[in-house]
Amino acid sequence: MNQKKICFLVGSMAISGGTYVIVQHAAYLFDQGYEVTLAVQEPFTVQTLAWHDRTAVLRCVPLEEAKAESFDLVIATWWKTVFELQNFNSPRYAYFVQSIESRFYPEDELPLRALVDATYHFPLSYVTEAVWIRDCLKSNFGHAASLVRNGVRKDVYRPSGSAVMQREQSRQPRVLVEGHFGVSFKNTALGIKLAREAGARDIWLLTGSAVSWVPGVSRVFSRVPMFTTPEIYRSCDILIKLSTVEGMFGPPLEMFHCGGTAVVFDVTGHDEYIVHEKNACVVRRGDMDGVVATLRRLLTDRTELQRLQTGALQTAESWVSWDESSAGFRNWLEAALAGPVVEQGVLAELTEKAFADYMRDEQRRLAKAPQKIGRHRLSAFAARLPTKLVRLLKQFEAAGEVWFGPRKVR
Questions:
Q1: DSSP strand pairing (93-97 vs 238-241)
Q2: CA atoms within 13 A on the CB side of 397
Q3: Which letter, b or e, does each residue of 317-328 get, where b requires 16 or more Cβ atoms within 10 Å of its Cβ?
Q4: For the segment 18-67, what is each residue's pLDDT rounded down to a tens digit?
Q5: Gap between the Cα atoms of 81 and 119, Å rounded
Q6: Are the C-beta atoms of residues 151 and 24 closer than 8 Å to each other?
Q7: What is the sign, positive or negative, of the torsion defined by CA atoms of 159, 165, 168, 172?
Q8: For residue 183, what pLDDT is reported?
């Protein structure tokens, strides 16, 4: 048994693609004999963890509790957790970069974006999931990050199996829109609007947002367990995923494994497995008319749709499983465990400097322009509201985005 103690610093255990990837790698390491801890920033419950079948074997503890322990390697998994590394007792630290996360925030919030980018200057062992991120870390920050592409659960995502509703050749193809609401770069409401404009008559929604009804949508699947998602994918013909910031997004690849195809923007990371007009359709970012025209073509031309679905299955067949992917992650981890020691004091100095620079630049920014209430501040406020009220607000937010949201990317 490998007795090395590994700690992943995780922002949230709620349903998300990033958390899914962390859980898959962590569970594999647990199976290989490592002592694995997930130290989580946001509060969680048994219900929070229930969406993934492997969380039951993992040790998940609050971040503050884990600070009292010692580990052989501590791995930050998103930008805020990098600033927590100084508080963890370990000889070595690492950073699993799933996107360049400064892109998550508005371009006019330059101090905040700079604060996020400051985390990529830390002297850590780096690993990432996409070529574009690896290249960015090298060219912009001087890090030689290891590349470990995400795998797919071949036991879960496959073309055969149960479905919520069978695909019918005699009916118009069914469209599935996937994504959260309230996250501007996900463009989930925009996907619904454009599907309706293209003439789609049966639109389903798969979302991590707490919603039960969305205008223009036939079926809503909210926060479903992992084993339910392939039943939804196998019921639909075309996935619409119009996010404009990604690392290496998983839903189109999972849809490929379940026999469907996808329409996506030319978002970063799409080219890890999507080939335009071979297994899916790639539309230039912001080309709303292009999305509508592409979807109309697939809704009316069954031969073209089936050609793309065949190409998607061929891509799926050659794609790596999670065991293969996580074996590569383990190789990186072993190299990190043998890598240079990093003093906590160095991390503390870099953290102090990053926040000092942020406070100085943010004060200057606010002095020059009227203060806006950013979404990250609204989220912090919403976290203090009663759960039922938050769910009601989320429901109104989703409907409002579909009804009144602009016909453009954000």
A1: unpaired
A2: 19
A3: eebbebeebbeb
A4: 999 999 999 999 999 999 999 999 999 998 899 999 999 999 999 999 99
A5: 9
A6: yes
A7: negative
A8: 87
333 and 287 share a domain? no
Segments of the chain with pLDDT less than 70: 1-2, 370-391, 410
The encoded tokens of residue 45 equal 């419950």
Taking only the tens place, the pLDDT of each residue in 180-200 is 998 888 999 999 999 999 999
Q: Which residue has the tokens 């360049």?
A: 100
| b/e sequence 199-231, b meaning 16+ C-beta within 10 Å | ebebbbbbbbbbbeebebbebebbbeebeebbb
Q: Given phi > 0 = left and psi -120 to 50 = alpha, else beta, which region is 193? A: alpha
Phi, psi of 216 (to 5 degrees): 85, 5
- Does 57 reside within a domain? yes
Cα separations (Å) of 309 from 53, 173, 175, 277? 28, 12, 14, 10
CATH number for position 208: 3.40.50.2000
In a domain, residue 264? The reply is yes
Q: Which two tokens stand for residue 73?
A: 């390697």
On whether both 249 and 265 belong to a single domain, the answer is yes
Range of the domain at 183: 175-319
Closest CA to 83 of 355, 356, 351, 358: 351
Cβ atoms 128, 146 nearer than 8 A: yes
* pLDDT for res 402: 80
| Angle at CA of residue 129, ends 126 and 131, nearest 5° | 95
**DSSP conformation class of 57:** G
User: Which tokens sit at 31?
Assistant: 């199976």
